[in-house]
TrEMBL record:
Protein name according to UniProt: Deoxyribose-phosphate aldolase
Purpose: Catalyzes a reversible aldol reaction between acetaldehyde and D-glyceraldehyde 3-phosphate to generate 2-deoxy-D-ribose 5-phosphate.
Domain of life where this protein originates: Bacteria
This enzyme's EC code(s): 4.1.2.4
Source organism of this protein record: Microbacterium commune
Top EC class, one word: lyase
Annotated compartments: Cytoplasm
SMART domains: DeoC (SM01133)
A Pfam family recorded for this sequence: DeoC
Pathway: Carbohydrate degradation; 2-deoxy-D-ribose 1-phosphate degradation; D-glyceraldehyde 3-phosphate and acetaldehyde from 2-deoxy-alpha-D-ribose 1-phosphate: step 2/2
Length: 224
């Protein structure tokens, strides 16, 4: 676990609170915890905004979440509003059914609509729900995300019954996008060992709801 601690691991983390029943108090607590842990960002639902963030903590906001079945114009409007209310980064869900059907031009157009509504320097991460896709579809969707101007491809919402991030998916996504885009692993990462595997497979960002436990596990494994 030494690599995790020296990274340091916290700067790879989007500390995440996306459960539908999250209260204002829980959102405030998540922000405070992210700041205390030194994570890169806190990732919240659009309705949580606006929020006050301490220090250098970034704000990531999900778009079209969790189904991805929203019309592209709605995703674009949601993205623009999130940015107006302070979002630094957007994590958008693709139309997963379109990817399964091989309608990759439609997937690209959907991503591009959000990119156009939220141009750089806003960071755009594209959630592909990798556990629901074939390897062929994962590669094609990653290429579509690159063509549409995304900054990251991301494995999962964490809400899909097919599962969350896998080492195989992260490796394949990294192989596809190389150093041109970054990869975020999210969904089902519950231990320091899980986090280590995702980073070794090529992830540069991790979506975690159990950030404190994972960071404490990394320190314990390193003997701190």
């Amino acid at each position: 676990m030494e690599a995790l601690v020296s990274a340091p691991l916290a700067r790879h983390i989007d500390h995440t609170l996306l459960k539908p029943e999250a209260t204002s108090a829980e959102i405030a607590a998540a922000i405070a915890e992210a700041a205390d842990l030194g994570t890169y960002s806190v990732c919240l639902s659009p309705s949580a905004l606006p929020v006050d963030l301490p220090g250098e903590l970034k704000l990531a906001v999900v778009i079209g979440f969790p189904s991805g079945k929203h019309h592209s114009s709605i995703k674009a409007a949601e993205a623009a509003l999130a940015v107006a209310e302070g979002a630094d980064e957007l994590d958008m869900v693709i139309d997963i059914g379109a990817a399964i059907e091989g309608r990759y031009a439609d997937v690209e157009a959907d991503i591009r609509a959000v990119r156009d509504a939220a141009p750089r320097p806003v960071v755009l991460k594209v959630i592909i729900e990798s556990a629901a896709l074939s390897d062929e579809a994962i590669v094609a969707v990653c290429r579509a995300a690159e063509e549409a101007g995304a900054d990251f491809v991301k494995t999962s919402t964490g809400f899909h019954p097919s599962g969350g991030a896998s080492v195989h998916a992260v490796s394949l996504m990294k192989q596809t996008v190389g150093d041109r885009l970054e990869v975020k692993a999210s969904g089902g990462i519950r231990t320091a060992a899980d986090a280590q595997q995702m980073i070794e497979a090529g992830a540069t960002r991790l979506g975690l709801s159990s950030s404190r436990a994972i960071l404490e596990g990394a320190e314990a494994a390193a003997g701190y």
